[in-house]
Amino acid sequence: MSSTTSKRTMLKIVGWASLAATAALLGCGKKDPAPDAAGAASEPASAASVAAAPVAPLKIAFAYVGPVGDAGWTFAHNNGRVAIEKEFGDKVKTMFVEKVPEGPEAERVIRDLVDQGNTLIFGTTFGYMEPMLKVAADHKSVKFEHATGYKTAANMRTYDSRTYEGAYMAGVIAGGMSKSGIIGVVGSIPIPEVIRNINTFTMGAQSVNPKIKTKVVWVNGWFDPPKETEAAQSLLNQGADVLFQNTDSPAVLQTAEKAGKYAFGWDSDMTQYGPKAHLASAIINWAPYYIKATKDALEGTWSTGGVWWGVKEGAIDIVAISDKVPAAIKAKVDTVKAGLKDGSFVIWKGPILGQDGKEVLAKDAVADDNFLGGIKFYVKGVDGAVPSGN
Do the Cβ atoms of 107 and 314 come closer than 8 Å? Predict the structure, then answer.
């Protein structure tokens, strides 16, 4: 064999071996990495090597009409805000502005909250309704929640708690504890919500003592401790020995404590402000609704409308009932609470008479929410007149 033939034979053998190796690799399914723009092969990126883009937290803001430390209405709302943070952690970022007056100043504050990037905003008092509607009209991508109002928009809904249920249970206790037969209420602003609470407190008291009379002094504000104190003292001077309130500070309870009379906490547990006078506290728990609203916003299920929650939903309760309250009265309160929870007891069921003795709700008729939301009259047993213009 010549040297040339030997070389050719060797080249063929090497070529066949190379083809066989290539076929074997293809048969195993191995693929060469695709070349990049420069012609160099690149390896596919693994999932671990690609960092997930961080999700920005939902920014939530609250506008409060009073100070966080009012021990009542605003304090209760702020507890709900804290509950949101605890429930959702770093998925949310909350902030609040306190002592925001109702009216034009509220609109300025709410616009500022939008400018700060908040996309879920809660306005926590009736007087924010019109300002929030104006801002909502200009910021369609922001969701607005208005407490105690009745006007909505595509991006603004309303929410409220059935505070009258707590007022009724407090009334049951007042009716069982009053010796003079006169109970007193310090009213804030004469809107249907507050008038409804005065009436329902009276109705609860009359369920124990039908002869109970209720006197009312208005302070025309939600949080004004000096005026609340003066109003409470005025009621005591008129013979009231159990006081109730629809104002936000513990001033009424403190006044009763000094006078050796009885009173209630409102919106939150106020026992510490007048332990001897304190009979119970009708409280609001905003946490269930605030958690629901935040969840709706996070999951994209938020929609407009209105929500009104009470004992049934865990939004209203009466707590810290004093040992001074007789067992029979406590048992009646427990029965009422259980009935409100399962729907077997209805507070506003006729016959109910107005202050003038005329029937405002016929026998066995049950008031619907439209009726309850428009109450502007006193029931029989409440002295005085509803302030004009309301």
Answer: no
